[in-house]
Amino acid sequence: MKFFIFDSLSRTKKEFVPIDSNKVRIYACGPTVYDYAHIGNARMAVVTDLLVKTLKKKFKNVTFVSNITDIDDKIIDASKKSGVPISKLTSKFHEIYNKEMNALNVSPPDFQPKASDHINEMIEMIEELVNKDCAYFSNNHIIFRVESYKYYGQLSGRSLDEQLAGSRIEIADYKKNPRDFILWKPSESNEPGWDSPWGRGRPGWHIECSAMSKKCLNIPFDIHCGGVDLTFPHHENEIAQSCSAIKVDCEPQNFCRYWFHNGFVTSDGEKMSKSLGNIKLVNEILKKYSGEVIRLSLLSAHYRQPLNWTEAILQQSEKTLSRIFKNLEKIKKDEIEDSQIKKNEFFLEFQESLFDDLNTPKSLSILNVLINKLKESNKKQQSKIYTAIIEAMKLLGIGKNKEIIIENFDLIKKLIDERDRARQKKDFDRADEIRLELSKINVEIEDTKEGTKWKKLK
Ligand SMILES: [Zn+2]
User: Fold this and answer.
1) Does residue 372 belong to any structural domain of this protein?
2) Which of 303, 315, 394, 297 is CA-nearest to residue 351?
3) What separation in Å is there between the alpha carbon of 248 and the centre of ligand 1?
4) How far apart are the CA of 413 and the centre of ligand 1, in A?
5) Strand (E) or helix (H) holding 338
6) Torsion angle, CA of 374/378/383/385, rounded to 10 degrees?
7) Torsion region of 160: left, alpha or beta (phi above 0 gives left; psi -120 to 50 gives alpha)
8) Residue 22 domain-assigned?
């Protein structure tokens, strides 16, 4: 089964062919940690998590890196305002971010590098850019010379005028051209800073992703993810830096092969902003809805489409989930046979919809059809459909917190296997312990000639 991804650089949906099929490599721009995550941050994390989980169905080895921005002027400002030291502030919100994403069933990335741990790599890359005359020193800053890179603007498709209008141009007399951007800037004595060939200072934001993706994944890697709002200037700048550091006018494909961008989240039809007071924070929504309801809501629209966040979406997802659970609970699970998932046509149809550029609206409608079929089908088919539904929900990352439905299904099988091994080794104490553990989650087991059978007690 082929895997398709929409690549923002070529603006086409393409078959995904990794550089090395034994090692798929993905990078996503992570959060700046000085405040609670909003639902826009969560959409990126959930959608990328689904991409990684789905890719793992096809490729054995997938490495996913997502960074933590812990150096930024917004962090410095927040620290000054609150009086909380920077490292305390960033480690607090880093931890909160990971906890909240965990509540949304987002698996942690394989690596979560922090910008502050990669200053040397950034300095090295900046030196490379200066040596190649792609960057210049001016008024204690190092500035990237945008004119030096001929592919600049290719990702965002912005013309020169649009680049000027779209980026928040700081009026700075040390820039030779207003489009140029900062790689390194001087730090005041009360600001965080590191020694560099250009004096004590700190990096601009964009360079960290170029340095950390190269360090953690090597370039070129396969997929670069992020919110569509990062396309310009952040991702445009990442390409310019990473490619120019290889050689002058090096093509964008030498940084990464596919650009995967998720759409905006609006709040009741309006752009989320502090001034409108309509920013939806994950921790606030979690007080009223489960992480799975939030996750399902985030997946209800196709990831490339804008998503209008409303109370109605949450209510609808809550209804959908409880309907799924009710229908699954009606099935006598002790009569379910484990059917081979690779030959399960119901699951394969579901999987194909996700392999097609993560078409979650289609995959959710397939899941809905399966739920309806479950009641009407004969026993043999029921087993197959039930297994397909469980696997589909695991892939979507929903149903984990519901008693028995998914997590316990796996847990029960794991415990029974372990008990069988203990009995073979005549470790009857451990076997009894496991029987007790199972009874605590209302599972009764029976040892038969054909092996261990289990039943869920009401
Ligand atoms: Zn980035």
Assistant:
1) yes
2) 394
3) 21
4) 41
5) none
6) -40
7) alpha
8) yes
Q: Is the per-residue pLDDT at 304 higher than 50? A: yes
Torsion angle of C-alpha atoms 204, 210, 211, 213, degrees rounded to 10: 140
* 163 and 64 share one domain: yes
CA of 234 to the centre of ligand 1 (A): 6
Which tokens sit at 66?
Answer: 């997502």
* Dist. CA 357 → ligand 1 center (Å): 22
What's the whole-model pTM score? Answer: 0.87
Residues 178 and 300 occupy one common structural domain = no
- What's the 28 CA to ligand 1 centre distance in angstroms? 7
Span from the CA of 29 to the centroid of ligand 1 (angstroms): 4
Ligand 1 centroid–CA 212 distance in Å is 9
With beta carbons less than 8 A apart as the criterion, state whether 245 and 124 touch: no
Helix (H, G, I), strand (E, B) or coil at 15: strand
Per-residue pLDDT band at 255 (split at 50, 70, 90):
very high
- Going from the Cα of 66 to the center of ligand 1, the distance in angstroms, rounded, reads 9
Domain hosting residue 230, numbered range: 4-262
Ligand 1 midpoint to CA 42 (Å): 16
Residue 212, in any domain of the structure: yes
Cβ(62)–Cβ(107) below 8 Å: no
Span from the CA of 209 to the centroid of ligand 1 (angstroms): 4
Query: Are 227 and 204 members of one domain?
Result: yes
Specify the pLDDT at position 403: 44
How many angstroms is it from 232 CA to the middle of ligand 1?
11
pLDDT band, very low/low/confident/very high, at 206 (cuts 50, 70, 90):
very high
CA 429–ligand 1 middle distance (angstroms): 53
Give the DSSP H/E element, type plus range, for residue 69: none
Residue 166 has pLDDT above 60, yes or no: no
The alpha carbon of 239 and the centre of ligand 1 are apart by a number of angstroms equal to: 10
Instruction: Find out whether 87 and 160 touch, Cβ atoms under 8 Å.
Output: no
Q: How many residues does the chain have?
A: 458
Burial of 340 (0-12, 13-18, 19+ CB in 10 A): exposed
Q: How many CA atoms lie within 13 A of 346 on its CB side?
A: 27
Structural domains counted in the chain = 3
Q: Mean pLDDT of all residues in the chain?
A: 92
Whole-number Å distance, alpha carbon 157 to ligand 1 midpoint, is 18
- pLDDT given at position 116: 97
Asked if the model's pLDDT at residue 259 lies above 80, the reply is: yes
279 neighbors 183 (Cβ within 8 angstroms): no
